[in-house]
Amino acid sequence: MSHDPQMAARVWRGLRTLVLERYDRRKEVTAALDMSFIRAKALRHLAAAPMTMRQLAAVLATDAPYTTLVVDDLVRRGLVVRDVHPDDRRQKIVTATPEGEKTAEIAERILGEPPPPLLDLDPADLATLDRILATLVK
Amino acid sequence: MSHDPQMAARVWRGLRTLVLERYDRRKEVTAALDMSFIRAKALRHLAAAPMTMRQLAAVLATDAPYTTLVVDDLVRRGLVVRDVHPDDRRQKIVTATPEGEKTAEIAERILGEPPPPLLDLDPADLATLDRILATLVK
DNA sequence: TGAAAAGATTGTATCCGTACAACTAAGGGG
DNA sequence: CCCCTTAGTTGTACGGATACAATCTTTTCA
């Protein structure tokens, strides 16, 4: 069976509409945490796993100098701490504090809350979506 | 049958990963059009349908003054024109020029290109996705 | 007709983010 | 040991975006 390129395009458009237009919670997060979205993103990643500055810069897709500013701000807020890497004194390991973990969780809850139509979806369809998505994001 | 909230959350996370992390083409668009993403977004909407400044501001989720700057820039590039509304001389109708339509189409092609895993998807699953998405974005 | 409201523009201030240059400290290899 | 590389920081400059005040024209309506 061959593909219907129009169908693939329509599906992609639907996915983008859902995520980017209908249920984009960025502003909610910045309002709830009172920080820019990139700071919240940094905090979420750091809460998931401690990281060096270099790794964090890669995750944020920004350069090292700006990463320093972001982490400076998070440290000032008491949400993360910077420690020297035990095996390489050049590197700093950034770790979320308990307070930082709590804050990151607030962001996760806002961003991760499934939109109403997804919650109202027919359970069989939801399971199907789950299966298909597993292959798509694999 | 009752819902599995974990499944809904997992599906939502998958959707976000796909659209926001794996196949975000914003930078491609800004590079191809040599303009900020919000300008490209304005141009795409204007190419789809002429609009007043007020309507465009709403679409862009920005305020009227900044919308003026964005449209000024698009006019300067010859991609849109501003005309007085025939029924209300206070309003301006912004319309894409033929050149603007061509440029918008480039952006649409970049953003609308379905990601590889979607093109490689089993046709039956693609059709299922199409059906489910139609209910989700309805 | 005169006051109030709406649409758009101009101007200003500020923050966010990107990009670079320059520098310090530490590690690695000849 | 010296040179080169790497990690991180500091500083600067600039464009992008948000927010707000003020102004002008046009429309609406009492």
UniProtKB/TrEMBL annotation, chains A, B:
The HTH marR-type domain, residue ranges: 1-138
GO MF, one annotated term: DNA-binding transcription factor activity
Pfam families from the UniProt entry: MarR_2
PROSITE patterns the UniProt entry points to: HTH_MARR_2
Entry's Gene Ontology BP terms: response to stress
InterPro entries: HTH_MarR-typ, MarR/SlyA-like, WH-like_DNA-bd_sf, WH_DNA-bd_sf
Recorded coiled-coil stretches: none
Protein name: Transcription regulator protein, MarR
Species assigned in the record: Sphaerisporangium melleum
